[in-house]
Amino acid sequence: MKNFHSIYSHHFIRASACIPHLRVADPVYNVDRILELAAHASGLKSAVALFPELSISSYSADDLFHQQSLLNAVVDGIARIIEASRELTPVLLIGAPLQLEGKLFNCAVVIYRGRILGIVPKTYLPNYREFYEKRQFTAAHAALARDVRFLDHTVPFGNDLIFSAVNVDHFSLHTEICEDLWAPLPPSTFAALAGAAVLVNLSASNITIGKADYRRHLCAMQSSKCLAAYLYTAAGPGESTTDLAWDGHAMIYENHQLLAESQRFSDQQQIITADIDLERLIQDRLRTTSFNDAVQMHREQLRSLRRIEFEFAVPEDAVPLRRPVARFPYVPDNPEKRDEHCREAYQIQVQGLMKRLTFTKTERVVIGVSGGLDSAHALIAAAHAMERLNLPRANILAYTMPGFATSDTTKNNAHRLMAALGVTSQEIDIRPSCLQMLKDIGHPFAGGKPQYDIAFENVQAGERTSHLFRLANLHHALVLGTGDLSELALGWCTYGVGDHMSHYSINASVPKTLIQHLIRWTIDTHQFNDAAHEALAAILDTEISPELIPAQSPDKPLQSTQQIIGPYELQDFNLYYVTRFGFGPAKIAFLAHHAWGSRLSGHWPDGINEASRNEYDLAAIKHWLGVFLTRFFQTSQFKRSCIPNAPKVGSGGSLSPRGDWRAPSDAEAKVWLDDLKLIP
């Protein structure tokens, strides 16, 4: 790894979409503007700089395209750009009318470091409404040659070209022009199936009311269907307004996610820039079987596409990531969508529980309520389910079961919440039964010795679960599991007769950070009464602890979960990028450092107060990532191989062996820990 702190060491490339201020039919002026923006993109260390359709001549030249003086000036302008490109970082994609084979083509000229990599003619020429391109231009399919002689060089020519950097994994580029995207089968679709991960569109596209939204939908959908980045730039200031107007619309999408967008109707030239995660795209293609089925169905056509190879001069210095990385990838980061996403998460869990209850002809659930986050969240989801089933909340049989280390704080919070929700509640002291088992197995604690080992802890967890199952038998009820996705990832649950097991486990695909957010949302949107909200707020403010080893004082647990297994906010971050994208440790650490390196940068979700806005240096990130890798890959899979049924909630996935994650229980973590050493 040349430079850990550079995006180019982690399978990103930087891309720019440019909107120059042009003059109609003035190639000298236009080339000057193009080179200004190309130099700007180079200063930004961009790998790609995209310009609009026919940007050297202007799009709105109409029949002036048939004037030889203009066409000659365009060629002279291209020669200037080629020469200037020798010192520039990005691949340049320039729009130009070119006279080839005795025909005039609307072309994208792909230029890099002093040479033309290829010339791509427009495939579909619009000839309807305000468009009359067939009056001036010939479509790509009318071309006879696969190579043309241009500026004393033989250059690949056609709409079947994919430009691939041989020294940068997954950096494969395809270009199409404006109307090509509007067609039922865009050329970029086949290019993506053939391996192109970066799709670009040189457009002119005059503006009419509502057209901008249509463009956004087109680019977003093409990027998502092709599992690709899609760069789009349209003509801006300077084009002729004889009959049309231009808004200078540029966008960069990555698999439906908008990374950057220009200011429309600006009277100044613009450049927008975004960092594209090529590995993320390729990982999605690797997993999406329908994408690869489409490749197989069209393999003969895809084999005919030509690859134009070049070596990209990767910037050697640090190129910091400019793209925002959410600290909480499982938490909705769009405030406008917050209510919708949170309500949907609850409804998925509620609907799952309702189906299980109706199918088993069961009207009661048994749940252990500890006064912690997970059981609180499961309890309020159960309350919603009872309402939907027109059953009384009293049918929720909730038990708090204090052990040797239960604090007054958590026990009181459990009682407050159960009372506020109106469920049937009871307290069962498990210490007598735990002492009996400790005595039966000959544990030193039964003889008065303060030995707090794994057996001591798991006797308590096992007794709680054993009580819950027998209570369910007694009351013809289902045991509702409370353990979450984060705990399953880290193996932080007692296997078998313990919190690992239940009849139905609605939190099993909900990570800890999302549970915290959902509880905040429950309070903010007044889902229950004030007393319930006050209890939930108190639970949110309580230290996360298993409370299995006696505390030094009644209100301060000796055990802190996050001091043992790491901060959940970091471990959930690691979990997301391991399971959703299969990223290696170095890249995850790079992203985590960008997201968590400074508490003052980036966006924080609503409800996280100043005191809870943490930051982590790279050393801390590396340490806790090492803990995660060992626990996730090597020591905890056997617990995930046999977990109760649970609904999948988020796109981040689940760890059910029947769903997103299937892995051997005796795998080694060595390859991940070796990669961890690459982190400085």
Give short descriptive properties of this protein.
single chain; alpha/beta; six-stranded mixed β-sheet; 20 strands
Can you describe this structure?
- Strands 13-12-11-10-9-8-15 form a seven-stranded mixed beta sheet.
- It is an alpha/beta fold and 680 residues long.
- The chain contains 23 helices and 20 strands.
- The protein is 39% helix and 16% strand.
The tally of beta strands, per DSSP, is 20
Count of helical stretches: 23
Radius of gyration, Cα only, in angstroms? 30 Å
Alpha-beta content class? alpha/beta
Write the layout of secondary structure elements.
Elements: E1 12-19, H1 27-43, E2 48-50, H2 68-84, E3 91-100, E4 103-112, E5 115-121, H3 133-136, E6 147-150, E7 153-156, E8 161-165, E9 172-177, H4 179-182, H5 187-193, E10 198-202, H6 211-225, E11 229-233, E12 250-254, E13 257-261, E14 270-277, H7 278-287, H8 289-297, H9 299-303, E15 306-310, H10 338-359, E16 365-368, H11 373-388, E17 396-400, H12 408-421, E18 424-427, H13 431-440, H14 454-475, E19 478-481, H15 485-490, E20 504-505, H16 512-524, H17 530-540, H18 561-565, H19 568-581, H20 585-596, H21 618-635, H22 637-640, H23 670-676
Parallel strand pairs: 1-2, 2-3, 8-15, 9-10, 10-11, 16-17, 16-19, 17-18, 19-20
Antiparallel strand pairs: 1-14, 3-4, 4-5, 6-7, 8-9, 11-12, 12-13
Helix pairs in contact: 1-2, 10-11, 11-12, 11-16, 12-17, 13-14, 16-17, 19-20, 19-21, 20-21, 21-23
